[in-house]
Design goal:
Helix content: over 70%
Protein name: Gamma-soluble NSF attachment protein
GO molecular function: soluble NSF attachment protein activity; syntaxin binding
Oligomer: single chain
Structural class: mainly alpha
Subcellular location: Membrane
Pfam families: SNAP (PF14938)
Number of strands: 0
CATH superfamily of the largest domain: Tetratricopeptide repeat domain
Radius of gyration: 27 Å
Strand content: under 5%
Family: Belongs to the SNAP family.
Largest sheet: none
Length: about 300
């Protein structure tokens, strides 16, 4: 029987008696047939049947105590689920692949599987994409491999901004900054902190932007950075309601060196009515009259 008859291969695999007494030999035979059928269906572009065959092949390899091969087949099933637009299975299959890689003690491919799922879903099922990005980051963080997660922090931030969840986006940028601190990536750390401040300003939350700046300035690396000095100028311009200065700062090289999604936000500043802030600042600067001065 050749791999050009994938339906017959599937039927033969399904008919294999997987008894408790002969499960090992039977599953080995069935798994080989499922793998051959999966390849045949994929070549024939019958992606739905190929997906099902890879899923069964994965189960077979798992029972045969081969989690690595099981994970590979599960990733293949996930990619095919994406091809046919079965978005729920995309997330489920990549998660299962990640769990199987963890069984092998391999955090990098485990994180990669979740990241593939996140990228497959980030334009269609945004909430699920975020969960997968968070899982991918956590997998590397738990293994002390923060340096490898930088693209994942970026990906999660982009999805949060797409969802207009600016507080969450800023929080994830701060998480990126902390990760960068742990691996002495000072430049990435400082850019992440400045990016968080810009996100708060874009969300028209000057108070939170100032608080974020104050908190980040407790960290010596940021306190002494060009990004810190730039953030100070940008916050001052916002507080003073100086629209021209805000727009001038947004064109600076400091902004140009940030990620594209942050550059776009910065160049749309100011988003709120900063002229109102200007009048508030002027009122604060006026010396209040004491009633005793009138007597």
């Amino acid at each position: 029987m050749s791999a050009s008859d994938p339906q017959k291969l599937m039927s033969k695999a399904n008919k294999t008696k997987l008894s408790l007494t002969r499960w090992s030999a039977d599953w080995r035979n069935a798994t080989v047939l499922y793998e051959q059928a999966a390849n045949g269906f994929r070549v024939g572009k019958d992606y739905g049947k190929a997906k099902d065959a890879y899923e069964k092949a994965s189960k077979g390899q798992e029972i045969l105590s081969s989690p690595w091969d099981a994970a590979k087949h599960m990733e293949s099933a996930a990619a095919l689920a994406k091809e046919i637009g079965n978005w729920r299975e995309v997330g489920d299959f990549y998660r299962r692949a990640s769990e199987l890689y963890i069984e092998c003690g391999r955090s990098q491919p485990a994180s990669d599987a979740l990241a593939k799922g996140a990228r497959a879903l980030e334009d269609v099922v945004l909430d699920e994409a975020i969960h997968l990005y968070i899982g991918a980051c956590s997998t590397l963080e738990e293994d002390g491999k923060e340096q490898m997660a930088f693209d994942l922090y970026r990906g999660a931030t982009i999805v949060y901004i797409k969802m207009e969840k600016y507080t969450d986006a800023a929080a994830f940028l701060l998480r990126w900054g902390l990760a960068a601190d742990k691996c002495n990536a000072t430049n990435s750390q400082c850019k992440a902190y400045l990016s968080a401040i810009i996100v708060y300003l874009y969300a028209d939350d000057l108070k939170q932007a100032e608080k974020c700046y104050g908190d980040c300035s407790q960290i010596d690396a940021f306190l002494r950075s060009d990004q810190n000095r730039f953030a100070s100028k940008l916050l001052a311009a916002n507080k003073e309601g100086d629209i021209e200065e805000i727009k001038r700062l947004a064109q600076s090289s400091t902004i140009s060196n940030l990620d594209h999604v942050i550059i776009r936000l910065a160049r749309k500043l100011p988003t709120g009515d900063v002229s109102a802030l200007k009048s508030d600042t002027a009122k604060e600067q006026e010396e209040p009259l004491d009633e005793n001065d009138l007597t």
